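Structure tokens please, single chain.
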Amino acid sequence: MTELAEWLSRTSETALEPELPICDPHHHLWEYPTSRYLREEFLQDIQAGHRVLKTVHIECLQWYRAAGPAELRPVGETEFIHGVAATDERACGHRRIAAGIVGFADLMLGAAVLPVLEAHLEASDHFRGIRYATAWDASKEIRATHTHPPPGLLGDPTFRAGFACLARLGLSFDAWLYCAQFAELACLARDFPTVTIILDHMGGPLGVGPYAGRRAEVFADWRARLDALAGCANVVVKLGGRTMAMSGFGWHKRDAPPTSAELAEAMAPYFRACIDLFGPNRCMFESNFPFDRASCSYVVLWNAYKRVSRDYSAAERRALLHDTAERVYRLAA
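Here you go.
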């Protein structure tokens, strides 16, 4: 047992309401020298008690092609994950792991990104869109996201020429950015109303670096900026990411992980704010595993989501746990 697995085992729970269907719209698979999270590891999580019917894999810089044109190398990740999805489908009899695939394409290629997107579509009929992380903060204490974006990227004319290709092909866009960038995202959403934009991790309200010890202030600012973004009908929100270290709760430093009741109490204000503004049909719970595994197990995390969602009707809960994700990522077929 790894050190993390041993620590996670210190807080053990049985899955609540195991009959409820779940579509997990945000997870990663990867293999690093010190961290492996592939189908085998993910299966241990999704088969631990909750009824996970489908998942969406999100790009994470893995399995790029080793040769060929640089702009086409990210297609290797889609090819690899498609193979994982095919293996899993043969094993369980239906599309489950990576029923949807979100890859990467460099939108700073402008209109020249079109053949890259077409290559992703050719590589997998599970391909649904791309994520281009643009999260940027002026503080050096906030770690740069993996694309190392400059500020103001969403308004760049070349980026937008690439973004227009998503509209042309009917593909979605996963946005990973911080709340200070919500106005830029709203402008992009208004200018491209036919592109479905999925806000990852609610825009990641920060609790580290210059934001540490300012939770109420950060929440109020995040909530106010989110209000303006909610007016864009083509924007939907992933509810999660709160157990990442950057959230500042410090759960990963405890002797034992938090219980689902503790998580629910801490995360509920963020989730309810999103649901109040966007409605259940534009919100979906996500695991963000294995990133969020830093603070809790898969069972405990989804137990927390189920606890928070008990305040809503049966139809609203189904939307939050399954239906919104299935619809947004076009997984019903």
